[in-house]
Amino acid sequence: MDPPEQRRKRKRFVRPPYSPKHLLSVRSLTSSFFFLTFLYFLSFRFFPINSSTFHPILVVSSLSLLSSSSSRSVQNHFNGDDLLSSLRIEDRVLFPDHVLLLVSSTKRNIKNSEGMECVYGRNLFKRYDSSDGVAAVKHSVLSVDEYDGFRFIARCPVPPANHSAAVNLQRRGGSVAELGGDYGLLKSNQTVYSWENVAYAAVLDGKTVVVFVKGLNLRQERKSDPTQYSCHFGLRNWERDGGFALATRAITAAQEVVRCSLPRSMRKNPIKAEGIRVTIGVTVTPHVHARAHEQVLVPSVAKIWKHKPEKQRNRKGKYELCVCTMVWNQASSLREWIMYHAWLGVERWFIYDNNSDDGIKDVIEELELEDYNVTRHLWPWIKTQEAGFSHCALRARDECNWVSFMDVDEFFYFPFPTPRLQRKRKLGFPGQNSLRNLVANFSSSTRVAEIRTGCHSFAPSGLNSPPSQGVTVGYTCRLQSPERHKSIVRPDALDITLLNVVHHFHLSKGFKYLNLPHSIAVINHYKYQVWEVFRAKFFRRVATYVVDWQESQNEGSRDRAPGLGTEAIEPPNWRLQFCEIWDTGLRDFVLANLADPESGSLPWERSPL
User: Fold this and answer.
1) Around 591, how many Cα atoms within 13 Å sit in the side-chain half-sphere?
2) β-bridge mates for residue 102, sequence order
3) Alpha-carbon span 75 to 170, nearest angstrom
4) pTM (two decimals)
5) Residues 6 or more apart from 176 whose CB is under 8 A from it?
6) Which of 270, 368, 569, 580 has the most CB atoms around its CB within 10 Å?
């Protein structure tokens, strides 16, 4: 028998491998797992959801869209295809007319959609019946494009009836059977976010982050109370760990833009915030069973990004005058608009492309080859023009002293001065670089930060087809009274909210705007063009707070055509409408200054093949 002292030592160092408390914890977890599994199968057995129409899967989840196992499944489907095996679908957003996929890739040479197809599996909320004939289907990818420094975008058509919006990609020509009889890939967590409620973009701005978010429904042209909002920052390894680890309070909130401070751990080195997912928290009114000050997080596909300024072309310092615009299928209008305003002195263009499919990318590349300083920025978020302009203002601030926010059917024009006005005019005479010279006169001003110019709306001018020499020469009749105004602003003097409506911004305290007299400058707005061009407006409009033409709201608004209904049907005598006064001033100006002396052709006219 061992001495008592040795037995005490053994008791001191020997412990039972499991305590009763530990066993209870394991039993509890096991019981919970089997109970939840039972409820899952019970719901499908007794409460199946049937529908003959498509219902998207809208799941708010803090998990990654594709788990690591599903990512491996994607790579297995693309075995033998070196490019597609590197893809990983991070997020999906359901729009009214397509599904947007945000895809990361280990390769940065994704140039087009020729190698990919969209694959749709059965709707996961519809109980499977082998007799219903519902199987996976394929459609061509609508477009593929680079988006930010982390991801590119693929756009797929909306899913067919009884198929899931959790669309996947496969190599073109691959067999649907590759997905397997049970479509195992679609059984993984396949979150699809609704475009009506999602944080969609985020920009690093000093020691703050500016988040663009849909679904807050804040009032137009109003600053909102920021105290009910907060920013929540994900972990660096979001897809693996999930969840939001850090939070800060909102500084400002207006329309679709919320600004927050960076977390303290990122402020000393803000660049570390790049690539981190961020979303907005909304404080909701507590109800009987809710905790006080409960916050609901908006679903998010937004990752913090800081755009790097373009290298200045043959100059030091900032460009004096830049232009920002948002377009949808305006490729045919770009050459005239850019070449004309380049002659007036614009040095830099930011083109925000809102899902164009008319070859605009090729047009911009051609202009760049001709030494026009144009960059295209993919902006896939529909009806967000005001937010896009706020985004562009942040982007242009490091490159430009002044930025004009205008559309591609709007042209600055300096009327020929009368002898009386010539004596009084102090801003220079119209000519080459006249617009740049005008704004440069105010660059040294400590207070003027916005230059407003009135607009004249031009009519179809009796034409039945687009004018061959461009809008500036072809349309010569307009409404008599001017409508609204457009602005050129100093991006470093904008209000911290970045609040803007109808192309003009709110300014920081201490700054003011200047209205240019119509005798000095106007904007010719070629709003009512030939019906062939005008009817494209019925598809969609880019502004957030402007009703689409198909909707029967605000039919008397100046944003619509007077007397025009909600259908794209050409009214009688469209070519003769809106013509109250003939105005050939800009036509004469263009032909006198920009036409070739020998041929009479204009710079934007294509040479015959």
Assistant:
1) 12
2) 91, 153
3) 9
4) 0.81
5) 119, 135, 136, 137, 138
6) 270
